[in-house]
Amino acid sequence: MEDIRICPTHGFYRGESCKCGYKGELILDKERVEKLGRLVSGILRHFPDKFRLEMDEDGWVDFDALARVVSRKYRWANQWLIKAMIYSDEKKRYELKDNRIRARYGHSVRVKLSDYPPAEEDVLYYGTGEEEAHRLLEIGIKPVNQAYVHLSTTIEKSEEVARLRTDDPIILEIDAKAAMENGIRIIKANDYIALAEEIPPKYIKRVIRL
């Protein structure tokens, strides 16, 4: 986790220096970034009802209402700091539009995400470990503790995900084009992540050992 600072030219960023080399004013230290991120992520992905926030089928909640909940939990937090967290997030976890906010991916609550575009990649990737890979080749890829299977748009990103769980990652190559042609909905969450309700085993076309 990194501090959030602000550059007068490029806006909010994370780390010591902006991409232009300017060392901006500190907005949030990394401890508060982590606290704020955990709370906002938890609300938007897992437990909006706990805070009596209404979420529509596409995952949107009212931004003002979310900000009020956050400020009650952390008195130092406000709308501006929430926006700083959102706009500086290189992983593009959140989306803010028309005074509504949502998590782009990672939901455990059921959401349809009907306004997401279909994935345009012909091939997608899923990073896992050796033992799980054998099981997935038999039963397919299904979500665990999440509403959707998270697929990566590049081998490199799938390896990053896999290495969070294992030192010896296995990458499964998914024939996304064939899956979508046969009616499986695969949607694009951001530049690096696509979502599917499940991937049957017949669409796992190749096992890549790194």
Record keyword descriptors for this entry.
210 residues, alpha+beta, ADP-ribosylation fold, 2 domains, three-stranded antiparallel beta sheet, 12 strands, 29% helix, globular, Probable RNA 2'-phosphotransferase, RNA_2'-PTrans_C, transferase, RNA_2'-PTrans_N, NAD
What would you say this structure looks like, in words?
The protein is of the alpha+beta class and 210 residues long. The protein folds into two domains: 4-103, Orthogonal Bundle (Arc Repressor Mutant, subunit A), CATH 1.10.10.970; 123-209, ADP-ribosylation fold, CATH 3.20.170. 29% of the residues lie in helices and 24% in strands. It is built from six helices and twelve strands. The chain has helices spanning 30-45, 63-73, 79-87, 130-139, 155-162, 176-181; strands spanning 4-7, 11-14, 25-28, 61-62, 94-97, 100-103, 123-128, 149-152, 170-175, 186-188, 193-196, 204-209. A three-stranded antiparallel beta sheet has the order 2-1-3. A hairpin with a 2-residue loop joins strand 5 (94-97) and strand 6. The protein is globular. Removes the 2'-phosphate from RNA via an intermediate in which the phosphate is ADP-ribosylated by NAD followed by a presumed transesterification to release the RNA and generate ADP-ribose 1''-2''-cyclic phosphate (APPR>P). May function as an ADP-ribosylase. Its EC number is 2.7.1.-. Belongs to the KptA/TPT1 family. One of its GO terms (molecular function) is tRNA 2'-phosphotransferase activity.
